Amino acid sequence: MSDPFVHLGLALAARAVRYLLIGVSGANFYTPRMMPKFVTEDWDLFLPPDSENLVRAWGACDDAGVDVWLGDEPLDRPRDRWLADRIIERRALTRVTGPGDLKVDLTLVMKGFDFETVWNEHRVFKVEDVDVPTARLLHIVTSKQAAGRLKDQLFLTTHQDALEQLLRKPE
HEC string of the chain? Predict the structure, then answer.
């Protein structure tokens, strides 16, 4: 397994965790092989606001031997439904770190979209032996535009031509 995400992806699948890959890492799946990939340091996984699913995601992280963080501290234990309900209420982001410079954000927010809307139109890509459910490129770009963060605007401006070309192609 060469991609650092594979081990975590297998653990998420084994626990039937619902998630969608979003952000720049998701946009990269839409780039043709000969086109350079967009630069990003992490994977962004959009999860539904479902405490059972979130507890399974944390369990998958344990199974994969990766660390889960809330801010700059390890996520407290027990990682149970009570804690998941508090995280969901606050729409707090938890970060996963692991070997091979693995950085994964577990987010409950995709600006401008709810989980089910994006889930209903997702595509599945493969990373080695792992099926990775991924948001449509149009949803990713629209969300980045809606977020209005400086880093998102910089990404959209820098890659405007490439993104427009990709969006014109049939998926």
Answer: CCCCHHHHHHHHHHCCCCCEEEHHHHHHHHCCCCCCCCCCCCEEEECCCCHHHHHHHHHHHHHHCCEEEECCEECCCCCCHHHHHHHHHHCCCEEEEECCCEEEEEECCECCECHHHHHCCCEEEEECCEEEEECCHHHHHHHHHHHCCHHHHHHHHHCHHHHHHHHHCCC
